[in-house]
Design goal:
Largest sheet of chain A: 4 strands, mixed
CATH superfamily of chain A: Glutaredoxin
CATH architecture of chain A: 3-Layer(aba) Sandwich
Strand content of chain A: 5-15%
Radius of gyration of chain A: 17 Å
Order of helices and strands of chain A: EHHEHHHHHHHHEEHH
Strand order of the largest sheet of chain A: 2-1-3-4
Shape of chain A: globular
CATH topology of chain A: Glutaredoxin
Largest interface: A-B, 21 and 21 residues
Oligomer: homodimer
Structural class of chain A: alpha+beta
CATH class of chain A: Alpha Beta
Helix content of chain A: 55-70%
Number of helices of chain A: 12
Number of domains of chain A: 1
Chain lengths: 206, 206
């Protein structure tokens, strides 16, 4: 089965749009999704940006909100921008790194996005993360402790460095097995089509 | 009939994608297109950018080329980035302002884009512009002289100021009669759908 990497930051509004639909869309096309949480902050800093471009360029930021409102309405989703933007997504991303071991990362990711962009919660708060963990059947106490351990921090740092190495400059970004990069929720269909047509024919007959 | 404004800069690669398809798409949906050439340069300067963001942020620029190559291949179009990018588009835009009087702006615009992004020509050169004018049945000598007159320069400056006033920050940008803004070739279908559904019902029954 072909695999498509889905690179996302928990503070990214357009990543929310993709996270809520990628698995159904991928299943329809026989593509497996590899969830890749990372941090946009260090990547933006590398471009000389101290915050989100939506804050640095307010016209672009105002447009983003309206653009996502329209898309969300069309898809029957709720979208609200929480009071703080962008939120500190480092702890959410560390938890998502842990979740990869036992496969709860996708469900946890969707839950965190809904708490942030549907309910207006702050995902940098431990309470919000505990709520998301509980919602996907995981033990908050154990996992919030592990979240603070060095190997987990290192794993997320390595993943963000991998994103830089791959020339990722925004989120969501989709990368196929043959190295094609697609940026933005509006390229999801194209990325899945590419992955399905060209991805790993040998593996699917194994 | 509903009208959709199409704001574009002659140096903009994604505007090329839209210019080549907007009229057929609009006709299918019963929407009229108002072609609005303007200059992105002053708008980028207002954001503190001295050149295209594709040059300021090279990873974004490299991605743009690959993204448009894929889309162009899918649509059966040719795309090559001319050696100079972005090109000085001021004279092409001035001619397009003149063309609005007699209705040859759309054909002229497509011709200039093809010379630039299909053939690799430099649209800041008088020869290229003369070729585009001749291709759409206009007299190069007369029009290249008018292009340098103050009223034409003023008209383009006013149009660019209007773009700033409308909070346009990139190209292509589509604006409906009820003031909805859509940015990017990938929003063209959505913009036309919006315009067709909500645009000027009174006018269409007049």
């Amino acid at each position: 089965m072909a695999t498509l990497e889905f690179w996302y930051d928990f503070a990214s509004t357009y990543s929310y749009l993709s996270a809520m639909r990628i698995e159904d869309f991928a299943k329809d096309r026989g593509v497996e999704v590899a969830w890749k949480p990372f941090l946009l902050g260090p990547i933006f800093q590398g471009q000389g940006w101290t915050t989100s471009p939506f804050n640095l360029f307010p016209k672009r930021g105002n447009y983003m909100v309206r653009d996502i409102e329209r898309i969300a309405a069309y898809r029957g989703m709720t979208f609200r921008l929480a009071p703080v933007f962008p939120q500190n997504s480092v702890n959410a991303a560390r938890l998502a790194m842990i979740g990869a071991e036992k496969g709860w990362t996708p469900a946890f990711t969707r839950e965190v996005y809904l708490l942030q962009f549907r309910d207006g919660a702050d995902i940098s708060e431990t309470d919000t993360l505990a709520k998301a963990l509980a919602a996907v059947g995981q033990d908050p106490e154990t996992l919030l402790a592990r979240m603070r351990e060095q190997p987990v921090k290192d794993a997320l740092r390595a993943q963000t460095e991998k994103a830089m190495f791959l020339n990722i400059f925004g989120a969501p970004t989709f990368i196929t097995e043959d190295g094609e990069m697609f940026w933005g929720d509006d390229r999801l269909e194209q990325a899945l089509g590419w992955a399905a047509a060209r991805g790993a024919p040998a593996a699917s007959s194994a």
